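quick one, 275 residues, struct below
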Amino acid sequence: MRVLDPDEGAALWAAARARPQRSAARTPRASGAGLAPQLRRAASGFGFVSEEDFEAASSIVDSPEERTWLAAGDEVYIGLGQGQVARGDQFRIFREPLPVRDFESGRRIGFYVEVVGRLAVQEPGESSSLARILESNAEIARGDRLARGHDENRWSEPSSGPPAVVAGHIVFIPPLRSLIGTRDAVTLDRGRSHGLRRGDRLEVYLEGSPKRDRVSGATVHTPDHVLAELVVVELDEEVAIAVVFDTRRALRVGDAFRTRPAPVLARRGSDRAQR
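---
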């Protein structure tokens, strides 16, 4: 360990005090052209697999590599052959499926999964096919499951145009978590069939309630209180996964969400344009 002389120590201390300090305020809202890269980073390790895709899932059955753990660039054999896959077909590699259930009916609607990578078919075979791992978020092993991949354009900027009016509930949070905060993912009981789109912004809210004015004795109704803001990153017909980008308190299963209403000024401008 080097001992600083008094003059050098004083200079370092002054420089440290001059650095800008990080604010303890809430994480700022994502916006504009920077949204797509943030979604890619936030959603890289999780996903949703529908009942149909789960039933049709296969796995990595072997690899020409001698190593136990596999990674991007390695070749593998998958348990699907000719008539089931074609050259270039892509699959998500996942493990640890956990059931997701509808908030109201309790019906199982799919599985929350840990996505560990992605692969593409190179040579379809009679009963198995040669594939190459394109990317890996963690160590990949023989036996890891496969599900059809999503459209490669999913990380383009959110589409323009007003979103559909959609409301529902948070139905699942990641394992070993009882509360959710900023940059975490939540699973919602609404999806593509309900009008949600990838990139849609939502708000989690607590409904207003009647309160008694202690002075006047009148009963008044408080407005809804917005608890958090979400962005949809994965879509299925009945389910969506969203990332929490701004939160006022930890979120829980059962919290209600809805599409964010258009800003007042934007609505007034639209009204004038229609006159």
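Residues 46-150 form a domain with the Thrombin, subunit H fold (CATH 2.40.10).
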